[in-house]
Structure formats: structure tokens, C-alpha cells
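Trying the structure run again after the queue cleared.
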Amino acid sequence: MAKVLFAVTGATHWTLKDGSRHATGYWAEELLTPYQAFTEAGHEVVFATPGGVRPTADPGSLAPQANGGRDLTPELARIAGLAAPLKLQDVDLAEYQAVFYPGGHGPMEDLAVDAASGRLLVAALDSGKPLGVVCHAPAALLAANRADGTSAFAGRKITAFSNEEERQGGLADKAIWLLEDRLTAIGADVRVAAPWTPHVVVDGNLVTGQNPMSSGPLAAEMLKRLG
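Done. C-alpha cells:
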């Protein structure tokens, strides 16, 4: 049995360019689907957030219409670890065999500038352990710099929530920055597929998914690597 770290946003809002706050957090399905995949395979999942705050699900991600009529709230409530996550800055990567970052707009608010998360991502990437990042969670890669200031993910093949998906979601014009643009700017080789289709990119131990539809396939790729 492996021990898998879920590094989750602690943000409850995303600041837009007019200064207003868009209520958000982690995207429920992107956390729940991989959690169920890992635990059903016999692995242990441990949660960590910046400061150890209890993470909040994006309200929009809990709507049954966003989940094929399924109510995710009771399923999330049964995950005891979400109530008392570790402090991300206290995590020892040596204790884990894999690391996973679920999305939601929350990571664009906190993990994108979180130094502890950045150090964890660099260490996980260099360790060879499976590292999964989905949807908006690649925003966390923006804080993953090496000692010389360059991005640890420059030149790596990745995918993430696309500019077009942000436009179709209605928030692109309100955003201070767009994820696909910022990841391209740090030198990542960003490869996006048609909006709202499952799309996973594998580059060594790094496994990234484009959108909520990609969380299940991403978890399956990580499970192959855990054995």
C-alpha cells in the first residue's frame, strides 16, 4: 500500500481584475474521483493545505447539475482527512510515494504564490515519484522555481485548463491572468485538447490533466506507476 499526498488549495475565493472575489476552492469531482480511485486500490490518502486550513469545495462544483445529477456533498463529508489536513509547509516528501494536486480556481489564488508548495513540487518532480496535477492546479507550478530562479517545469510537457475553457466558462475576461498563458510564459510545453474533453499528458513521472473530465484518467495513469 502506498501513501499518497493530496496537496489542496486553502483559498475560498479567487480575486478578479476588478478587485471582486469569486467564491471558489477546490473542484469537488477533481478531488473525489482520484481519492476514490486511490483508496479503492488500497492506498492511503493524506491531505495537506497551506497553513493546515480546512479546504473548501467550490460551490459550483457541488451542484448536482455539474455532476450528472450526483450530490457529492455527502461523499466529501465522509472523508475524515479533509477536516484536519496537515500544514503543507510541514510535509516530508519522504513519507509519501506519490503527490496529487486537485484543481478548482483556488490554486490560482494561493498555490500559485506558495513557496512551500513550490518546494514540494520541485522535490516531487526530481524524486521520480508520480506527480499528478489537474485542471487549474497547474497554477501551483508557477511557484516551483529552482535556486537560479528558473522554473522546474520549463520544457516539461504539460496540460492545464485552457484559455478557451476559461472563456466558455465565462471568467476569462474577468481574470487578472489566464493559466495557459502563464504556464507558457515560464517555458512549459503546454498541450491542450478540445474544450471539455478528457486529456492527460505524461512526461516522465509528471502526469497532468486538462479539466474535470481528465481527473479519472489522470488517477488511472498514476495508479499504473504506483503498481
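The first strand starts at residue 3 and ends at 7. Worth checking whether this holds up in the mutant runs.
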